[in-house]
């Protein structure tokens, strides 16, 4: 962990004619005599931002976008969402107008045009997109980069200061590894990239102190850092500002690039939902960021309940290392629950088109989650994998069509310790083959819920796995009261 640099500041408190410097790092004091206890309060989300990575070939793209639960639209509140280009840093491009939308509660498929340079040949160039929403349009917002058919391939991520990705290196079949960094803010960001492999920590060299200018995109090839290695774990950390980050890997056999979803930060408890069956062996990629050795136990949550795929054996790894562990068949769609003595993080690769599809560790769903880009027909089928590791869960699944506004809803129950794969279908009345969104809402009294959308082609040919991430309509503000506490160096 990098040290935090604090700019010294004088804090002067005048009390009974004395000057007092106070340094307090304890919990807030209870209310004093005469002070009313103020309860936390919930307020509606009024602002949200995301960033979508560049389309791999630099051409036109499509963003599946939805915001605001339908109930919010009845309040009469207004809002707007805007997609704005994030051109490649150092590249002069033709100016593109923002794309705006103001349809709360409706799924929109927004086409993002290709970016062209301003030189004599005007070739297409890479370009990301920022997504900003205000008012009602910020509530339960979800944006995903999608195919022309409307199938989401990668979420447009939230900007942050620390992100992790884990997957194969070049020896594991990833011929090309590309990192996209997008800055949606008005100030530059400084990014450091750390890589841990099955051979240990890699000295990244030129990957430290990468500057990402405001409202621009920077792409970096990480392939040279993964040469001859089977596993790579990538940490993207900012020392100044924040960025959204995405990693894509291309197979040496060609085909489309596979996106590595960002995985949960290192923890002693992880849940990886949405691991479907496959005709070939899936693999678990694990990284131990700290210096202490790790002992990891793996529990599967299947349709039949809990069981240990490795029996009583644990996965033992040295500190500052990463490893690949082949997975035995899990008996259908399942989730993996990892418990370790030190913080670790992980992802699962399920073989499929190109390298395959990745399932990432996620947090439990709060309020609701939304998967915007789903399609069925022409051999494609979608399912929502719901996992309940610590208590029964009742879940409402709502499908919303993109063009007609048609919707369907159902409530399903997931027993404790089980995973339930529920088919996601196009609502009745919608045009066949059109895109639709799925809203996943755990009902009151339920235990923790983890979920992912799994898209397959034909018999168990996995096309994509998309983690279901909380899409908040409201946040809780802690109580605030008058205080004379201060921090003085």
Question: How would you describe this structure to a colleague?
Answer:
The chain is mostly beta strands. Among the domains are: 43-141; 262-470, TM1070-like (Hypothetical Protein Tm1070, Chain: A). 1% of the residues lie in helices and 49% in strands. The chain is built from one helix and 39 strands. It has one helix at residues 70-73, and strands spanning 13-15, 18-20, 41-44, 47-52, 61-66, 79-87, 99-101, 108-112, 115-116, 124-125, 127-135, 142-146, 152-155, 162-168, 174-183, 189-197, 200-202, 210-212, 216-221, 231-240, 244-251, 258-260, 267-275, 283-288, 294-302, 305-307, 315-317, 321-326, 334-350, 357-360, 369-374, 380-388, 393-401, 407-414, 418-424, 436-442, 450-457, 461-467, 474-477. The strands form ten sheets. Strands 23, 24, 25, 26, 27, 28, 29 and 30 form an eight-stranded antiparallel sheet that branches. A hairpin with a 2-residue loop joins strand 1 (13-15) and strand 2. The chain is globular, with a radius of gyration of 23 Å. The relative contact order is 0.16.
């Amino acid at each position: 962990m990098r040290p935090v640099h604090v700019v010294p500041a004088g804090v002067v408190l005048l009390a009974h004619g004395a000057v007092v410097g106070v340094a307090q790092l304890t919990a807030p004091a209870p209310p004093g005599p005469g002070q009313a206890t103020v309860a936390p309060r919930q307020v509606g989300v009024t602002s949200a931002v995301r960033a979508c990575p560049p389309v791999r070939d630099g051409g036109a793209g499509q963003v599946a976008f939805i915001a605001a639960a339908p109930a919010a639209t009845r309040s009469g509140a207004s809002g707007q969402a805007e997609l704005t280009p994030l051109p490649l840093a150092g590249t002069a491009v033709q100016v593109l107008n923002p794309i705006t939308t103001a349809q709360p509660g409706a799924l929109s498929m927004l086409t993002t045009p290709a970016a062209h340079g301003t030189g004599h040949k005007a070739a297409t160039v890479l370009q990301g997109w920022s997504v900003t929403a205000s008012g009602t349009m910020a509530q339960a917002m979800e944006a995903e980069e999608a195919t022309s058919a409307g199938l989401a391939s990668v979420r447009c991520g939230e900007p942050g200061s620390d992100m992790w990705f884990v997957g194969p290196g070049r020896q594991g079949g990833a011929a090309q590894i590309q990192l996209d960094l997008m800055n949606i803010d008005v100030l530059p960001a400084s990014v450091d990239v750390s890589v841990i492999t099955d051979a240990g920590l890699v000295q990244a060299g030129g990957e430290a102190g990468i500057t990402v200018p405001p409202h621009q995109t920077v792409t970096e090839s990480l392939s040279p850092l993964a040469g001859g290695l089977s596993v790579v774990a990538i940490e993207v950390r900012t020392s100044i500002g924040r960025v959204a980050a995405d990693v894509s890997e291309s197979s040496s056999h060609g085909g489309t690039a596979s996106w590595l979803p960002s995985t949960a930060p290192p923890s002693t408890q992880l849940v990886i939902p949405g691991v479907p069956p496959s005709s070939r062996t899936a693999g678990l990629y694990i990284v131990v960021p700290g210096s202490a050795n790790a002992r990891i136990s793996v529990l599967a949550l299947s349709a039949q309940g809990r069981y240990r795929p490795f029996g009583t054996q644990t996965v033992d790894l040295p500190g500052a290392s990463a490893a690949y562990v082949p997975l035995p068949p899990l008996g259908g769609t399942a989730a993996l629950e990892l418990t370790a003595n030190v913080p670790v993080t992980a992802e699962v690769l399920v073989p499929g088109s190109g390298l395959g599809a990745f399932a990432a560790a996620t947090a439990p769903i709060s309020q609701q989650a939304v998967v915007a880009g789903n399609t069925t027909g022409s051999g494609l089928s979608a399912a929502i994998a719901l996992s309940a590791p610590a208590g029964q869960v009742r879940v409402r699944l709502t499908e919303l069509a993109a063009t007609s506004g048609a919707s369907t809803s159902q409530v399903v129950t997931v027993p404790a310790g089980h995973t339930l794969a529920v088919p996601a279908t196009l609502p009745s009345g919608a045009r066949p083959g059109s895109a639709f969104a799925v809203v996943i809402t755990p009902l009151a009294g339920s235990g923790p819920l983890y979920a992912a959308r799994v898209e397959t082609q034909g018999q168990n040919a996995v096309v994509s796995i998309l983690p279901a991430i909380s899409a908040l309509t409201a946040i809780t503000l802690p109580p605030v009261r008058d205080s004379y506490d201060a921090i003085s160096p």
